[in-house]
Predict the structure.
Amino acid sequence: MSIIEIKGLKKEYPLGSTTVYALRGIDLQVNEGDFMSIIGPSGSGKTTLLNVIGCIDFATEGSVQVGGREITSLKDKEITDIRLNKIGFIFQTFNLIPVLDVIENVEFPLLLMKKQSVSEIRKRAEKLIDEVGLTEYAKHRPAELSGGQRQRVAIARALVTNPDIVLADEPTANLDSVTGAQILELMRVMNQIEKTTFIFSTHDANVLKYANNITKIKDGLIVRE
Ligand SMILES: Nc1ncnc2c1ncn2[C@@H]1O[C@H](COP(=O)(O)OP(=O)(O)OP(=O)(O)O)[C@@H](O)[C@H]1O
Ligand SMILES: [Mg+2]
């Protein structure tokens, strides 16, 4: 079953007196449980595409359905709801909160959701921290961790709310190749144990062996071969 259906997606940015055509008519379907890679050169539109799917940025034209809902016509409140409850984000630069330790960083989205008690939240965060192999680092702050460990925290944080989809924009770009491969492997394991759909962008062809579905993008269009 498809969890994301995109048709004729265009995204244009005004830039001074000109227009940047970042996405020029994307058709894409992502199935539930997919581990999909979006690969393309710098400037091809990968971040723009992930940001539109994640309701961080808005389409200029076209249809984007996430979990059967047309996100291009949602109100602000519904968009906030999707971002918090349905989607997890992993970024190239980790984006952890520096003053919080590992467990507090992972608990953070659950505290925002206000759906569980403090002790339930702690239990869920501990489970995810265990799954990403960081139990002994639970009291460390981000500055006291390696890049790979920081990205593990980000993976735990992205999954703690049990989202339907995790979007990862070049999650291995700031890691050496061995650590990058470990992070991809961990994402794949989490894709399987948590049954979460993953979409990650990359311009590194080495990471492609992990994906079960590869979409190539160039100049704002999907390249089919
Ligand atoms: N806010 C913006 N204003 C104007 N142009 C933008 C904006 N954001 C992105 N663009 C342009 O849109 C195009 C696609 O950018 P995008 O960031 O999606 O590419 P990318 O594939 O993620 O590249 P990279 O691999 O370098 O991260 C580029 O030409 C970029 O310059
Ligand atoms: Mg990018």
Observations:
- The pocket of adenosine-5'-triphosphate (ligand 1) is lined by residues 13, 15, 20, 22, 40, 42-48, 203 (CB under 6 Å).
- The chain has a mean pLDDT of 94.
- The CA atoms of residues 35 and 211 lie 5 Å apart.
